[in-house]
Every structure is written in structure tokens, then in C-alpha cells.
Amino acid sequence: MKTFKIAVLPGDGIGPEVMAEARRVLAVAEKKFGFQLALTEARVGGIAIDVDGKALPEETVRICGESDAILFGSVGGPKWESLPPNEQPERAALLPLRKHFALFANLRPAVCFPKLTHASPVKESLIEGGFDVLCVRELTGGLYFGQPKGRHEENGEPVAVDTMIYKKSEIERIAHVAFKAAQGRKKKLTSIDKANVLENGVLWRATVNEIAKQYPDVTLNHLYVDNAAMQLVKNPRGFDVVLAENLFGDILSDEMAMVAGSLGMLPSASLGLKETPTGRFGLFEPSGGTAPDIAGKGIANPIAQILSAAMMLRYSLSEHVAADAIDAAVRRVIDDGLRTGDIWSEGTRRVGTTEMGEAIAAAL
Ligand code: NAD
């Protein structure tokens, strides 16, 4: 039987609560779809600061390094907010993990379920029937990391410099991730750039066009980022996979999370350079944080964590049938009218974290 090694890092706040439900669902998927997951839990974030003296202990990095994928909860909370910025859980755990494992591709699905369109701030007439957009963002290049970067003075006046720089190979590898993702979906890719103004955009567009020849089954179109920001709000149903460089992807994926409406529903994946026999090593986590306002109350929505586990099956382990089945089980439970507090509305049944996890496991 295929066995995969998974590092499980629940973290802080609602992290352990929602992780327990993801594990419950994964346990059913293992039995049903004939693979085995060797799960090893490790500490990360505030809990690791308390117990080990640092947010990312060496032991945790070692366990992650020996695994096929990392299933991550979320880290941080009021208890650690007074620490110096560099020691705070998110900065001291998540960023070094991203760097250590060269996680260059950020995948954020923005899914609005047909029965949850009321949670979106967008007019229901524009999103009737829901939508499902996958944002693929380049995570390690561009304006956030380009050199030179810094501040100096010119003629007594402060000046700030950031450099947008992409190598062709960096664009190629993220384009491959996006085209492959599109192949597993509706086979439509929209590449975002600013080729009318930026040299980076010209190289981006030419490179994506070149890579497109290897994916003749995927329909490619290009949008300037300013137009994309408008079209994504106006007609999210018209999109399938959206590919963008680091800065544009940062902004557009947040915009899409908002348009989707329910933070507790949105998973994410960060894929690394390391290829495994069944895909790419990656870190899979909910888009939201540790929700200190509701932590410990048993009312957090576990769906983002459960869908993150499904993404892990899809992108790192190539267990596509199991991943699709988990997605379908979540949809079914939503269609059946079960809701945690964050997505509750009149006429639906309010449930807690465990009941939601149990219902999804049963639907699976
Ligand atoms: P947050 O996402 O934790 O919470 C924002 C709001 O969304 C809260 O009202 C919360 O109750 C709600 N929410 C989030 N996830 C939910 C879920 N699964 N079910 C129901 N409701 C949910 O963002 P915040 O309040 O800005 O941050 C809280 C802490 O989390 C901070 O310490 C922050 O640094 C940390 N954080 C961590 C990550 C990460 O680990 N990747 C990401 C974002 C924030």
C-alpha cells in the first residue's frame, strides 16, 4: 500500500481544534481510497515558543524535511504579540519554513459555494450558483525580494527603492504549476501582468505564451492587472485559474478571498522546489489565522483546514480521487444545511467544530 509521510503542525488558537477534524476526515479517506498516511505531529508557533523557546524548533524542521508534505494549522495570538517582531510566531515560524523549503508557488482557491453566495459582499445576481477561482501566485521573486532594495537620501531628501526582477526560469516554473492546475480543472488560465508599462510584464507574457505550447488543452488569455482587479469582482464565474507574480498575486488573492465571503472556508497551498514521486512537496494551511476571539470554544469552522488536507492529497500526493471526494463531501454537508457560526444564516442548522468534522467524515 502507498504510504506517505506527513508533518502535522497544528499551531495555536483554533489550529489544534480544526486540525483534529482534518485528521478525522483524512482517516476516512485512507480507508476508503487505499493509501496510508504516517502522520507526525510537531510544535510550531506560540506553543513552540512556550515549550521549546523558539517558534520553529530544529526538531520540527527535521520532521518536515523527512515528510512528503506539511499540514499546517495557524500560529500566533495575543499572548505572543508583545515579543519583538522577529520573534513573533508568524514571522519566526512561517516565513523561515517558506524559505527553508523554497516554497515558490502559492495556490489559493477562492470558492463561493452556491448555498453561501449571501456571505459574499458582491451582489448575488453576479455570483448566482457560486464560483471557483484558483489564484496561483509566485511567492519568492519580484518586488518583495529584488535587489537593490532600501532607503537612502538624495539631495537631503529620503528616497526608497524596491526592485522588480524576474528571471525567465522563475516565470517558467510557476507557469508550469498554473497550467498543470488548470489541466485538473476547467482548463482555462488567465495570466496577469502589466505588460503595457513594465518590462517584467513583457517577459512574463512572452514566457507564459511559450510555456502554453506544452499545454494545448488549456485555453490561455492575458489581462492587465488593473483590468483583472475589476473583472474578478464583476464576473468571478468567468475565471478558472489566475496566474500572477508576487505583488499582483498578493493583492488579487486577498481580493478574491473577500469576494468569496467566508474566511473559515478557504484553504491554501505553498508548493516547493522539491519534487516527490507523486507531486511537489508543499505546505498546506487555512487562509485565516488563529481566531483568538473564538479559540477554545469549539465553534471554529474546520472546513478551511479540511480543504487544505484535500489540497495536500491533490498537489503533493496525487491522490486526486480522494481529494475530489473530500471537496464533494464538504459541498454535500453545506447543501444539507449544516453551518458553523461564521457562515450561519436563518433557516440553517448551527453546529460546532466537531459536529461539522463528523458530518464531513460521514459524507465522505
Ligand atoms: P484571523 O483570521 O485569525 O481572524 C479574523 C476573523 O475571522 C475573526 O473574527 C475570526 O474569528 C474569524 N475566523 C478566522 N478563521 C475562522 C474559522 N476557521 N472559523 C470561524 N471564524 C474564523 O485573523 P486575525 O484576527 O487578524 O489574526 C489572529 C492571529 O492569527 C494573529 O496572531 C495573527 O498573527 C495570526 N495569523 C496567523 C496566520 C497564519 O498562521 N498563517 C495567518 C493570519 C493571522
What does this structure look like?
There is one protein chain. The protein starts with a strand and ends with a helix. The chain is globular and about 60 Å long. It has 364 residues and is of the alpha/beta class. The protein has twelve helices and 14 strands. The protein folds into two domains: 1-107 and 264-364, Isopropylmalate Dehydrogenase; 121-260, Isopropylmalate Dehydrogenase. Helices cover 40% and strands 26% of the residues. The structure holds nicotinamide-adenine-dinucleotide (NAD). Nicotinamide-adenine-dinucleotide (NAD) binds next to helix 4. It catalyses: (2R,3S)-3-isopropylmalate + NAD(+) = 4-methyl-2-oxopentanoate + CO2 + NADH. Residues 5-360 form the Isopropylmalate dehydrogenase-like domain. Its EC number is 1.1.1.85. This is 3-isopropylmalate dehydrogenase.
Keywords:
alpha/beta, ten-stranded mixed sheet, 26% strand, binds nicotinamide-adenine-dinucleotide, two-stranded antiparallel ribbon, 364 residues, Isopropylmalate Dehydrogenase, 12 helices
Overall average pLDDT: 96
Query: Which CATH class of the largest domain applies here?
Result: Alpha Beta
The hetero molecules present are:
nicotinamide-adenine-dinucleotide
Query: How much of the polypeptide forms β-strand, as a percent range?
Result: 25-35%
Oligomer: single chain
CATH superfamily of the largest domain: Isopropylmalate Dehydrogenase
Helix-strand layout with pairing:
Layout: E1 2-11, H1 15-33, E2 35-41, H2 46-52, H3 58-65, E3 69-74, H4 89-100, E4 103-112, H5 124-127, E5 131-138, E6 146-154, E7 157-163, H6 168-183, E8 188-193, H7 199-212, E9 219-224, H8 225-234, E10 241-244, H9 246-260, E11 267-276, E12 279-286, H10 303-315, H11 320-335, E13 338-339, E14 349-350, H12 353-363
Helix pairs in contact: 1-10, 1-11, 1-12, 6-7, 8-9, 10-11, 11-12
Bound molecules: nicotinamide-adenine-dinucleotide (NAD).
Nicotinamide-adenine-dinucleotide binds next to helix 4.
